[in-house]
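Please complete every field before forwarding. Incomplete forms are returned to the sender.

SECTION A: IDENTIFIERS
Entry label: holo-425
Bound molecule: magnesium ion
Molecule representation: SMILES string

SECTION B: INPUTS
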Amino acid sequence: KGIVGWVIAHDEALVIPDVSQDPRFYSQVDERTKFRTQSVICVPMRIKGRVVGALELVNPDRQLLRDEFIVSVVEAYASLAAVAIENARLYDRLQLENQGYRRVLKGGETVIVGDSPAIRAVLEVIERVAPAVTTVLILGESGTGKELVAKRIHELSPRRDAPFIAVHCAALPESLLESELFGHEKGAFTGASSRKLGRFELAHGGTIFLDEIGELSPAIQAKLLRLLQFKEFERVGGTQTLHADVRILAATNRDLRREVEKGHFREDLYYRLNVVPITVPPLRERREDIPLLAEFFVQRFSRRLGIPTLGVSAEALQILSRYHWPGNVRELENVIERAMVLFRPNWIEPEHLPPELRQGEFGSAETDSDLPPLWQVERRMILRALEDTGWNQSAAARQLGISRSRLRYRIKKFRVPVRKGGSRN
Ligand SMILES: Nc1ncnc2c1ncn2[C@@H]1O[C@H](COP(=O)(O)OP(=O)(O)OP(=O)(O)O)[C@@H](O)[C@H]1O
Ligand SMILES: [Mg+2]
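SECTION C: PREDICTED COMPLEX
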């Protein structure tokens, strides 16, 4: 799209002595420069022979540009600028590595990416609490990184070489969960053909992470309370009392105090678990972390999937920074992966992001649990249909099962942005 798009796509310099004659020129440029552009020189920026961007010179004048010499100066400048930008990017990357992310990117240690005051406060508590055997209750919305916090605590603890065992309490029905956690004796119930060790035994000397603790049944809550109080438990169907040497970390995305008030969760167990609470803040409350996280995920996926994406463009980053992220870091991770897999771009640009991120009114919605008004849903569907069909309104109307005139009416009414049909990117 536009002159820059053409130059990047064709890897060729472009000299336009009179932009009024060239439909590729974006007249909005003049709103920013506050002058009327007459002529343009645009040259590709290359790093090691690969086009990574373009440098565009807009000029209120015409004569100068006809000069071959000027074009070669601009080309020389663009190659210097490309190197400078590449260096700046490498510097950012180096900083990531200096912060200890290198081992993580190589798939070793867990690191919690982020530099916001909110995340730094979390990291500080993690470091303080890790060396002890203290029980930690990790709170936070879905996808904020609770499991990551648990793993990090284990890795920083003296138990780091012993097992870290995670149990997703909501994933199993009560009866199975009980024997999963505490084990069972042969013949404890139909189908128990042999003795089975529970996760508490398997985690002996190490750490157990009980995820979605708010889902535990009263019977299991009682057994867990006893384990926390006396370090004792029995296998299902067993009489022998066993001693547990495990550190317990628990997590939930529910408001556990409210579950206690409603009588769904034992108060005594709540206090035993809530010795040190760590609340992982939602991503929208630490937007400063978004650029660093995005860069981290770009690197991770370019390594893992072999996609040579360099980073996220300034415009795309602005969109990412404004969105309200109901699915938190996991959603950001998915958005980056999706963009890279579907488009394999040099830079992730706004058009590689899902449409819901690009809608201002969704971005500012603070009440994520509320359903959006119907018109917003309609608007979103229309936008998606237009994107699916390459901005062909007849095809989009067919896809939506409405007439073309009705579609046009709605586009106007909901102020859906329209682009010219045909090729994209
Ligand atoms: N600060 C972070 N740095 C790097 N990766 C992160 C960070 N926070 C979350 N992630 C990544 O986001 C994804 C979700 O994190 P995690 O599974 O720990 O969230 P959760 O809070 O346990 O979510 P849920 O409540 O849905 O189980 C994971 O892939 C994790 O690696
Ligand atoms: Mg989790």
